[in-house]
Fold E3 ubiquitin-protein ligase.
Amino acid sequence: PRRVPTVPVKNLNGSSPVNPALAGITGILMSAAGLPVCLTRPPKLVLHPPPVSKSEIQSIPGISHTCRKTTKKQAKKGKTPEEVLKKYLQKVRHPPDEDCTICMERLSAPSGYKGPQPAVKPDLVGKLVKCGHVFHLHCLVAMYNNGNKDGSLQCPTCKTIYGVKTGTQPPGKMEYHLIPHALPGHSDCKTIRIIYNIPPGVQGPEHPNPGKSFTARGFPRHCYLPDSEKGRKVLKLLLIAWDRRLIFAIGTSSTTGESDTVIWNEIHHKTEFGSNLTGHGYPDINYLDNVLAELAAQGITEESLAQEKD
């Protein structure tokens, strides 16, 4: 028998008649052409789990407490940029015949940086000790001054991190616990629920527009991980990312275009509990590995867990 084509109808039971009307017109046209048609409902978006009572919520084995708070940015140690960079660099007496990827001038020539002038000679060249990439010292100091000035440095060529990278996440609270429901694709375990809450406030000196108000849309934000060995590992690393203020930032929303608002900061979370219609849910067999790679790109790895214990 011939396969009957289907016309998915969004919002079939909703208040707007537009989508059902369009589907109806499509069905009429297909029928007029002698084609059979069947209307179908699309899969349902499931953002949240079934209701969970307080007595059903449990702490996560192997992870202390159920809540973390962040306060305002701590004062940094009074080291000059030159003192910070000295730990990560070796001086290069004979620069290679290539461009500095920061200013795009030849390394054999003085730095082409035209902004506020750092207190270092523009013709000095240094090599980062771990990755071996070479830059004008003048350019590296300028780059450091334009960043978070937290004592860390990230190679602009390969993104290798030197020191402990921290972010500019505004103050807030992170809660985490177990709920007795399974995620699609993880029927063999319970679910870790993370709840982020950041209130609106005023931007500090580390933010894009110091002294200006910022908004915080969509909070509290609920996120989900399977309560598996790898899921608990991801949670432990997310706790470090939270403490280092790397999960959120203040910037321009890619979905609404709103500026001076709290946005995600390149560490993806799953905010859809029982479906994956938006791409932010389950099942997703690659998600845990992908988020581990994103955390590593921020300098948060299993080594970080060992350092936290130390």
